[in-house]
Amino acid sequence: MAAGKRKHVTPAEAGAPAGYTAVPVKLSEKQLSPHYLYVKEHKVREGTDTTHPPNRTLFVLNIPPYCTKACLSRLFSCCSSVQAVNMCEKPGPREKPEAPKSKFFNLETVPGFRVAYVVFKNPAGIQAAKSLSLQGPLVISSESRPVKTGIRKWIASYAASVVDPAELKAEVDTFMHTYDQKIAEEEAKAEEEAGVPDEEGWVKVTRKGRRPGLPRTEAASLRVLEREKRKRARKELLNFYAWQHRETKRENIAQLRKKFEEDKQRIALMRAQRKFRPY
Questions:
Q1: Cα(108)–Cα(274) distance, integer angstroms
Q2: pTM over 0.70, yes/no
Q3: 63: exposed, middle or buried (C-beta count within 10 Å: 0-12, 13-18, 19+)?
Q4: Among 40, 170, 270, 275, which one is least packed by beta carbons within 10 Å?
Q5: What confidence tens digit (pLDDT) does each residue in 226-266 have?
């Protein structure tokens, strides 16, 4: 029995959501069945999204984990020059991203499928990207620019996680030096503004001064409680009232009776053992 031919699904049959265009992609030339990216023009109200400008931003869905920012930039560079590619876990408004301050810390990795915002330099790149659905599948990994997957990707990730101690120490020292300078500037500014009323005549009270605030730690709290306990003990007058005399006598008698019973039990135990030792 002859094997049936594999039927290729067209972009129109790929089940794209309403308003999206299906763009076929393949991991390599050997792959027979393509994967589909769903794209559309990113439209928002003016002033709501400063990172993704209107008329130049392409919103992309269904991005596989092996497709990186560099891969997306290379795939859509055939449409127009790509200005930026922002990948995230789910769509939503995003503030203007800050420049990465460290390559050792705050490394965000989004597992699984993601979405992306591709910003073109020219508005014509939006229509050109939509027309990719009429062409053949785009290849993500090529011989000149291979994409690591599977165990090769794990090995590369592990090798990248091993940092140079000297380089890490230099970055930490630089960060702490910048932080110390910032704290020194804030303290100098606070000293200049200490006791100076603002426009409405209010004076800001800080923890520093002749009576600075106590640190909010458990040890400090215990010291305060112990100090208050000693202060109350000094203020309390012992045997000043008649009822205090009565209570003191009752406590002494109760203690004597208790000691007498304990001595009786101890003597009875010694007699039972026939080892009477009065002292």
A1: 81
A2: no
A3: buried
A4: 275
A5: 888 888 777 666 667 778 788 888 999 999 999 999 999 98
CB crowding 84-121: b at 16 or more within 10 Å, else e: bbbbeeeeeeeeeeeeeeeeeeeeeeeeeebbbbbbbe
What pLDDT digit, counting tens, does each position of 79-100 carry? Answer: 888 888 888 887 776 655 555 5
How is residue 173 written in tokens? 């020292």
Taking Cα atoms as reference points, which of 36, 40, 37 lies closest to residue 18? 40
Q: Which residue has the tokens 């995003």?
A: 94
CA distances from 206 to 191, 198, 214, 227 (A): 10, 14, 12, 25
List the 21-26 sheet strands across, edge first. Answer: 82-88, 114-120, 57-63, 35-41, 21-26, 138-139
Report the distance separating Cα 48 and Cα 18, nearest Å: 23
Asked if 57 contacts 72 with a C-beta cutoff of 8 angstroms, the reply is no
Residues 6+ apart with CB under 8 A from 9: 33, 34
- Cβ atoms within 10 A of the Cβ of 126, count? 21
| Token pair for 151 | 């165990």
Q: How many residues does the chain have?
A: 279
